[in-house]
Amino acid sequence: MIFSVNNGEYTIWIPIYTLDDDSYDTYFYRGLLIIELILSIFAFLFIVTSGYIIITTRAFHTNMNSLYAYFVISWMFSGVGNSLTTPYIIGTWKVDDNSTNYRSWWTDDVAEMTPIKSIQEAWPLFLGGFLTWYYMFLTVRVFVCGFVMIMCALILVIVITFKCVSSWDTFLTYCFNNIVHLNPLIICPVLIFSVSTWSKALLHSRLPIIDKITKITFIDLPAALPAQNIQQETETYFSQLKNVWEK
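-> structure tokens emitted (247 positions)
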């Protein structure tokens, strides 16, 4: 959405499409928000677990490990950004007292831009937008890992911008936001399980949740006895059996 600040003095573009969207007053979209919240919690757990594994398990050079860890933990920027922009999108927080339902992704027509007197009136919105932009550009830099999600996001942006299916704008925007925000649910497992050192560390992790899962899923089998011990045990068994028969 393009904001025209102080009667067109300058413009700012932040990655949201709707503002004060009354669609979120319906049960359907409220349900989607609850689903997003639950998935965000799972994404946070994925981030914490992956970050812990990468930091504590050295699979590459220290600098490379640090870069991977920074990329994973940088999801926090998206988490904070999403938390700051969502209240404005659904209308809980308003840019001004006369805020209406604005819908726009990008435009060069000043008349279609969202007017605002000063950034200070809604600084959480612009801070959240900046953090979201930062995380999006960071994700694009890791192009191979997020190729499918990036392509889906680009397709949604094109559909929304050109209003190909205008009646689905809110839902498509919701999908776009979650492709950006919830990508750790896919990227973290792919990243961890693509490196054997990290995947082994995950399975033997002492994190409470992971520890419980691995205890349930993986049963420690007793170590195989040496061949000599097996032979001795067999001979002892038959000796005892022979003694029983002789008695």
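Residues 2-246 form one domain.
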